[in-house]
Automatic annotation (TrEMBL):
Keywords: ATP-binding, Cell membrane, Kinase, Membrane, Nucleotide-binding, Phosphoprotein, Transferase, Transmembrane, Transmembrane helix, Two-component regulatory system. Its EC number is 2.7.13.3. The lineage of its organism: Bacteria, Pseudomonadati, Pseudomonadota, Gammaproteobacteria, Alteromonadales. It is an enzyme of class 2 (transferase). This is histidine kinase. It is found in: Cell membrane. SUPFAM superfamilies: ATPase domain of HSP90 chaperone/DNA topoisomerase II/histidine kinase (SSF55874), Homodimeric domain of signal transducing histidine kinase (SSF47384). PANTHER family: SENSOR HISTIDINE KINASE CPXA. It catalyses: ATP + protein L-histidine = ADP + protein N-phospho-L-histidine. One of its GO terms (molecular function) is kinase activity. It is a multi-pass membrane protein. The chain crosses the membrane at residues 12-34, 182-201. CDD domains: HATPase (cd00075), HisKA (cd00082).
Amino acid sequence: MWRPRLCFYQRLSVSLVTVFFGVITLFAVASSYLQESVTREGEQRLHLDLAHHLVHDNPLLKTGVYDYDALKNLFHTLMLLGPSFEFYFVDTQGRILTKSAETAEVLRKQIDLKPVLELLEDSSSLPLYGTDPKSQNRDKIFSAAPVYNGDKLQGYLYVIIGGAQYDSIVDSLKKNKGIQQFAMVIVAGTLFLFFALMLLFRVFTLPLKRLSDDMDLFRNSGFNLASSGVSLLPWRDDSRNEVQRLGHSFNEMLKHIDLQWEQIKSTDAQRRTLLADLSHDLRTPLANLQGYVETLAIKGESLGAQERKTFIAISLKNLHNLKRLIDQIFELAYLESGHINLKKENFLLTELLHDIAAKFKIKATEKNISLTVQAEQINTYVSADIEKLERVLTNLLENAIRHTPKNGTIKINVSTVQDNIQISVVDSGVGIANEELAYIFNARYQASNTERDANSHVGLGLAISQKLVDVLGSSLTVESELGCGTTFSFSLSPVKN
């Protein structure tokens, strides 16, 4: 089944206008009912004693009713004097015995005495409605008084207030041109208010529609801000208008999603490149290892002892390179996963630095490189994960030794910077070009002047070091000048006494 689709503005307009007209209608009905009730109560209170005075002041009623024709003439005369009244005399059962109206006009021969008795007993609760003899289903306000014949109740004088003639005059007044014009003014004013509300709703909901259109454009473009055609309207975040603040939040969200999307694409491209490079790096030592092992297996005893020893040594070297590469891949993947546990402890920093430097003394001596530890304070305690800190310094020192020529220097400096302990690995090596500094922490990136040696290096050391330093709550920075050496630095928090 087809149903018309209404936009938010249309649904809001229709809903509010419907509610408005409903409230107006309810108010008009309630107001009309209240006005009529108040009017009827006022008229009934004003003429409440009319029947009582007629009974006590008129000889035909004062001593009892004997002549119904004379009473009918009296009622007719009274009706001429008061056209808004109708007079009836009923017996104790409510049957109409005589009346002021013509017989053809009276549709009921009996009235309900319950309202009459209720009025005579208690007249405080008004308006009180009784039977209208000229209508089959309508009641009217009335005045009533008992009529006695001596001490015997003979019946009741029943006076309708606002009879048929009165109703006829009121109905004709309602059809008066002035009243019709007033009604037309009310209708015109209501229509004007309707269109004014529609216009206001349009103004209020237009920004929301624009925001919704922008959302649709962004979604239909595959969440690509550049090709979506979204206008990014200048929404204000300090406005008291909720739509303005929503629009500003939406713009910020679009920019954030677009930035994340670009980062995801960049990361994906880097991942593909990294996988391709690592596949190549894994294939090379694995192919070499396979070749030498197959040669050993095929030739077996035909190889000389020295040749076999050489093949085994080369195979072990490739195996070591392969294991080193796999370990670094797993380490980088572990760090990027974010599920890292720190085992912090307090220790003497200079003692750890001297121990690490001692491990590299032999390598440094082979290249006649001076490796020293220089600390402003030798009794400085820090709180960190020793294993991860040692891994960072090991990577940095391996890089420093590899890129520092013979007779060079490497220093591990410890200094106090803004209440933190700064550790710097300073070498006098080949340095890094300024345009390459921004990329050296990327996985698999190697500077153009990287020193080559007999071992295989896959360019993951600095990427791992940077992530480890991040885990330690610091950041790894680099300063370098081509041909003048490089300095890597990071900070740790000292243990306060």
